[in-house]
Design goal:
- Chains A, B: Belongs to the DapA family.
- 2 copies of one chain form a homodimer.
- By secondary structure, chain A is of the alpha/beta class.
- Helix content of chain A is 48%, strand content 13%.
- Chain A has helices at residues 20-33, 52-65, 80-93, 110-122, 134-137, 143-150, 166-179, 194-199, 215-225, 229-238, 240-249, 251-261, 279-291, and strands at residues 4-7, 13-14, 17-18, 37-40, 71-74, 97-100, 128-131, 155-160, 185-188, 204-207.
- In chain A, helix 9 packs antiparallel against helix 10, helix 11 (240-249) packs across helix 12 (251-261) and helix 12 packs across helix 13 (279-291).
- Chain A starts with a strand and ends in a 5-residue tail after the last helix.
């Protein structure tokens, strides 16, 4: 279940409340495009900004419209108590796995994070995806902690940060395969690094952009998993203007601007204080959407 | 009101719920020691981990036991909607000012942060303290943003990060006095930097340790504000073993270990996943408490 393309949709807001109609329509588009799974309430799904009831309702909407495609749910929170509440809610709402980010305010130690994942697996029947992204969580995993986490039952996959160099990616995947049991899949994140990560042997792509614009990302993933890494690399290279926008403004603001431009969300769909891109920035996003024919 | 020593108490937990009896006793100790104000729900007060009801109840407890000493309340949250809810709750609970931290998950722009503070001052009658601490919020203010914030009515004080060098501190305060109107006070944070900040002309010390161990910090502040900066510097130098522990483990975990050691909170008073210091680390904290006679 933790292989192929997992699409991370936005959770669009409208008048500062979750826009369930928009979320449902996005989920139906992802299903139609043939993604392998849908991860709601990732960083792209603004999990950190939503309260408990909003989160459970968003998961329920996604499950209702996913037509059997597995739905994974982000349940991260600063406090373990809240993570466990979200995990129970996600299971009740029909999620098939949990994405757990060790999000921090006070810096966390490795023992804190091991304790968090231990508490989660003891309180849920669902498989757990470990979210490793120091850029958002401000926690840096090391291999000793990976090894300790791999001993916990229920850890099913690790979402690793992007790796900027092909040789480094191959070396890193070799190390991880030695470190981790076969039952734990490895998924690449950082959309610009996806083709390289899949070529290096990742099992999955945990993708921001595929949560909004899925078809080219499905094609890229299918090519890579069929072994045609030249085609996947070419597909990724073609999207370089999009990756450049992600690098400049962050993937969330750019993806939200695309969704708003294409009518998939209303203007200002991100939670305040995040204002989204300004008009000049949006014009550049719209030009890239047209150039890459992302509206298709 | 935004001058002198503002003490930031812990919000001790017991069995994963706010220990109001412990909080009340801490507040009464601060009042007895003669602090100028009490800021509940700062970073030291674990605001980021507490839900809305817990926050309002903690403020109410502090106000009830503060015997007229002004109580300020941290109201930070990732989403503006929640900040405004906390601000209204704090006012209802009797807080006399709001501490607003531009805490972030997705990186914020200067326009986002200006929008946040604009929304806050439009929705509250209470004066606002700007919390500038990139180490916890991951947002770095610049002087252009300070100047724009200073134009907002209701901004009463800025809590600035510590400055490691005396000459740099004097130069920075000179710059800030030019930039900011007289009605906005400047408070130093980073306890190890307090004497230097007050010598450089800060009006206030926003203090972590004074929220748990107040008397020596009151004495240091009184000396500095009376112009006896040599005495303040000597008082700070005497506390160097404590500052070294803060640098090594962070001020929160050390302060919690001190409070637990002195019976002001029960063991594991921090919100999980934060486990607090281990036994060996605690032995070193206890030795410093004895050496510096902090239990007095």
């Amino acid at each position: 279940m933790f292989t192929g393309l997992s699409a991370f949709p936005l959770t669009p807001l409208r008048d500062d409340a979750v826009d369930h109609e928009a979320l449902a329509a996005i989920v139906r588009r992802l299903v139609a495009a043939g993604v392998d799974s849908i991860t709601v309430l990732g960083s792209t799904g603004s999990y950190a900004y939503l309260d408990r009831a909003e989160r459970q309702a968003a998961i329920a909407t996604a499950v209702e419209h996913a037509d059997g495609v597995p739905v994974f749910a982000g349940v991260g929170a600063l406090r373990t108590k809240h993570v466990l509440e979200h995990a129970a809610d996600a299971q009740d709402a029909g999620a098939q796995a949990l994405l757990v980010a060790p999000v921090s305010y006070q810096p966390l130690t490795a023992d804190d994070v091991l304790g968090l994942f231990t508490d989660v697996v003891e309180h849920t029947d669902l498989p757990v995806i470990v979210y490793d992204n120091p850029g958002t969580t401000r926690f840096a995993f090391d291999d000793a902690l990976y090894a300790r986490l791999a001993d916990l039952p229920g850890i099913a996959s690790i979402k690793i940060p992007g790796i900027a160099d092909a040789a480094a990616a191959h070396e890193r995947l070799r190390e991880l395969r030695e470190l981790l049991p076969d039952r734990i899949t490895i998924g690449i994140s950082g959309d610009a690094h996806a083709a390289r990560g899949l070529a290096a042997g990742c099992d999955a792509w945990y993708s921001v952009i595929a949560g909004t614009i899925a078809p080219p990302m499905v094609a890229l993933t299918r090519a890579a998993l069929a072994g045609d890494h030249d085609a996947a690399a070419a597909a990724s290279a073609r999207l370089q203007p999009l990756w450049d926008l992600f690098a400049e403004h962050g993937s969330l603001r750019v993806t939200a601007a695309i969704a708003e431009h294409l009518g998939m969300a209303t203007r200002s769909c991100l939670p305040r204080p995040i204002l989204g891109l300004d008009d000049e920035q949006r014009r550049r996003v719209h030009a890239v959407v047209a150039e890459l024919e992302l509206e298709a």
